[in-house]
Amino acid sequence: MTRVAIFDYGAGNIFSLKNSLEREGAAADVICDFAARPGGDGDAAADAAKHYDGLLLPGVGNFDPAMRAVTRDSKSGFSDYVGHGMPVLGICLGMEMFFSGSQEGSEPGLGVMSGEVAALPDTMKVPHMGWNSLQIRRRGRLLEGVEDGAWVYFVHSYMAQLPAPPPPGGGAGGDVVTAESSYNDVVIPAAVEYRNYIGTQFHPEKSGPVGRQMIRNFLGVCRR
Amino acid sequence: MVKGTRFVEIRDAGDPVALARRYSDEGADELVFLDITASDERRKTIRELVRGVASVIDIPFTVGGGVSTMEDARNILLSGADKVGINTGAINNPPIITEMMGLFGRQCVVVAIDAKRNYAEPADRGSGSGGGGGPPVMLEEEGSGRRFWFEVHTYGGKKGTGVDAIRWAQRAQRLGAGEILLTSMDRDGTKDGYDHELTKRVVDAVSIPVIASGGCGHPDDMAGVFEATDVDAALAASIFHYQEYGVSGVKRILRDRGVPVRL
User: Fold this and answer.
1) Which residues 51-110 of A are in CB contact (within 8 Å) with B?
2) pLDDT tens-digit profile of A35-61?
3) How many domains does chain B have?
4) Positive or negative, the Cα torsion across B84, B86, B89, B93?
5) CATH number at residue B170
6) Residue partners of A174: CB distance under 8 A and separation at least 6
7) Catalytic residue chosen out of the listed positions A96, A104, A193, A205
8) Which of A19, A131, A155 sits opposite B107 (nearest CB)?
9) pLDDT per position as a tens digit, B110-132
10) Helix (H/G/I), strand (E/B), else coil: B198
11) Tens digit of pLDDT for each residue in B16-49?
12) Among residues A147, B118, B164, B231, which one has the fewest Cβ atoms lying within 10 Å of its Cβ?
């Protein structure tokens, strides 16, 4: 059975997410730190690799408290935890945490992808809540079997802004974007992938059959 | 962006969990559960019901009814709802909107407004009348030319508040509402279509999403409110019950009339 850890920032409802994973046959544990497990050998990373096939960063909360929760025991706690290439799915706020920072707060982000998170322009209704279609840029792993133009559910007030070309020395530039979504004239990165990190600005657990496909795809990545 | 179709479920309409699953599978964009007569003894069963429904659907889920404290809101969210609807509790204690936004995020806070046309001149209550955020917006009824204003009602529509619905929507947004669920009491249950005047006035007065409710008797009514106003979603109950349409049937009719919907 695929075992996934959901990181709880202590901010809200992760019931739907846990439920959506369990419905696809995974076992989902809720964790609230990256400390070593009691009874383990004291090495958090080794414990994680032994116990979990993937990590979920859910999408409910505020940037600073969530970042502080994730880095409570130092940022290296997170890096070590997923350091063996553990697949990480960041949803909404979880995806926003992949970047170097956010206008929502002052804490530094995880910095695994280049870019900043900015407030949605005030020409839009904010928070943006609703179904939007995806323009798939490249299939990646999460979007396997998902049709171009598929509808997914968004709830957000912020969006990622990525540098267009890959930054000098390689790394994760704008080419990490696997799908975009357009709100009138605003184009937002809807899904990103880089190494073992997969992020969605929308909520797969609230996106009907299309979202279920993505949850299954992520669990497939976890099993690989 | 698409227009949302939302299904509202009230109690005593069959097995809510089975219905919720059916509507989710048929393509409803969101589910709203309003327990209009929420009483203390029902709170616990509601929590169980919310959990049951949340377990079988994978679309957004709003739950409201009898919410007056942070504890009520927290219980609903912990049971698996994505958003909390608050109506009377917000009129009686507006700062709770801000408290809810602070703890759960703006996107969780749905302020439900039950509005009814009032043809009487608003009472002059001096500076105290600003509960809704200003004096009533006086309007003129098309055809008759009669002057009226939209008054907020609470306690399931039983009590007029003297608060203007348009002003209250604006104040609710300032306080932290993420969405307005706007019900026309004049139209509710009539199947005469949505109140376009009310919907348009509120939509144009706020910059957060508004859901129109009350009066939908036919898919054309949904198309009508989307065509006449910039409303973000329309809520209905009874039309989805008829096998004749179903959720996907309603959405196909909307699509054929040029309304962008998820199908």
Assistant:
1) 60-62
2) 766 666 677 777 777 789 999 999 877
3) 1
4) positive
5) 3.20.20.70
6) A115, A162, A163, A164, A165, A166
7) A205
8) A155
9) 999 999 999 998 875 544 444 66
10) helix
11) 888 889 889 989 999 998 875 655 566 667 788 8
12) A147
ipTM: 0.84
Residue B263 falls inside a structural domain: no
Q: Is A184 on the interface with B (CB under 8 A)?
A: yes
Please report whether residue B233 resides in a domain: yes
The answer to the question of residue B152 being in a domain is: yes
Q: Which domain holds residue B181?
A: 4-256
CA–CA separation, B60 vs A154, rounded Å?
10
How many angstroms separate the CA of residue A84 from the nearest CA in chain B? 32
Q: H-helix or E-strand containing A128?
A: strand A128-133
Closest Cβ opposite residue A15 in set B54, B60, B262: B54
Contacts of A28 (CB under 8 A, 6+ apart): A3, A4, A5, A6, A17, A18, A21, A22, A56
Distances (CA, A) of B192 to B114, B140, B144, B183: 17, 20, 18, 14
Identity of the residue in B29, B51, B78 whose CB atom sits nearest the CB atom of A131: B29
Q: What are the chain B neighbours of A205 within 8 Å (beta carbons)?
A: 58
Give me the residue spans of the domains in chain A.
3-223
- Amino acid at position B2, single letter: V
Place of tokens 């840029």: A137
User: CATH assignment of A3-223?
Assistant: 3.40.50.880
* Residue A143 tokens, joined: 């979007």
Distance from the A60 Cα atom to the nearest Cα atom in chain B, whole angstroms? 8
Spatial distance between the Cα atoms of B57 and B44, rounded to a whole number of angstroms = 21
